[in-house]
Amino acid sequence: MANNSFQHYDTIIVGAGSAGCVLANRLSADPNRKVLLLEAGGNDNWLWFHIPVGYLYAMGNPRADWCYSLTPQPGLNGRVLPYPRGRVLGGCSAINGMIYMRGQRQDYDNWQLPGWRWDDVLPRFKRGESFYRGGDSFHGADGELRVERQRLHWEILDAWERACIEYGIPPTDDFNTGDNEGVGLFHVNQIKGVRCSAKRAFLNPVKTRANFTIATRVLVDKLLYGAGNRVTGIDAIINGKRQTIASGGEVILAAGSVASPGILQRSGVGPEAVLKKAGVKCVRKLDGVGGNLQDHLQIRVAFEVENARTLNQPMNSLFGKLGMAAEYLFRQSGPMSMAPSQLGAFFKSDPAIDRPDLEYHVQPMTAEALGIKLHKRPGITASVCNLRPTSRGRIDITSADVAAAPSIDPRYLSTEQDKKIAAQSIEITREISSQAAVARYKPREIKPGPQFVTPQQLAIAAGDIATTIFHPVGTCKMGDDNDPLAVIDSRLTVRGFDNLYIADASVMPTITSGNTHAPVIMIAEALAEILVG
Predict the structure, then answer these.
(1) Which of 60, 525, 514, 502 minimizes the C-alpha distance to 290?
(2) N- or C-end of the chain: fewer Cβ atoms within 10 A?
């Protein structure tokens, strides 16, 4: 798919992740519009991009991942976490957890921006969706992105679900109606046990269009400017050589919450102090570029259990591994078809609040960290995250060099409110583990451990066991004219420019209450509406 002989294009899309794939599909439907889609990574012609459990082999692998690291996090007791970001056609949708989750109605209503309320965004969610039960008032049936039930069953997860119900969390079979309160199995982006990435869903059906070009291994450095407030193209590194690509129409940044602000900052658009420190001349002062970073932090509360089959046992056995491989080979089911988390729950940290602010990702396994060898004894991990953290961080370039890694600082657990909710979430998890539904499995807490009791102790312990769920948003936030930190307006146009747009997770003013892939698909649908009319 590499193409090093570039002509003039009407639309350049930077980034072939979730949003870029949708935009390429929608905009190239007009045969009179020449569309170029640029991706820094390569094609998805690797087995582990398609087998659901392949995320374990993709994260931390330069073939699939940018392999970023965070700055040391004081809220995590000084720990430095890896920060996977997809580097392949399909972007993070090729290595993510495949969970299809829209968030809550109030997430969008509270943005208070024209065209972005729940009633506005619901048709966009439905447009690209192919829901396994067919279409209804909440789901689409004729879209490209497949949404299915998971293809496996764990008795220990059924028991944890019943324990959640005993605790007071209602059962649900659909988290995507605008109210996601409840406990149940996650829906996933798969087609009969095979990952359905944005590339598979949106690019594969249209990649042969005559007016559409896909170019891989293209590292976009910065924007090119023309007269007035127009962007005329991009400057990129291709096969080690610098090359310019011209656009007569729009330039769209869909490179994600890490890369999109980086491209703007290297182009001289951002906070003056950040640009000066990196050695970049300020072309347009926009203080919000790189700020407002929000992410979901999961606290991995782990239990050793008895009388239960979990993933720990077969993963520590040669015959167990062979059995899993055979089950997937012949039936496309079993542990190799697993999303990283199967059982989910949305619930409140405090009965007094109006909607759920906590989410479970429950896994029939335990390990010191995701991607590391599983424990030998059976176990279950109830990862719990604060859906609406108040901590805010930054992502900034550290140099004018496009190859230099950015500074990524989410500032996890930097507010007293986030520390309080972290402690409450561990306490609630302990209550659920003591319900009658799981008594026969004799859950014994191994992380953080029963020795941590007070809220202060639990907040510190959370810093030792918490990790990101890889949901960075907000670094090019959308806002109205009265918001001094807004980078784009409600039509996704970058402030001060006529033809520069952003469509990815970076535009969210505040993070949605759930996994972020589906909202990014919706954001791309919104920009396609704006540009096509």
Answers:
(1) 502
(2) C
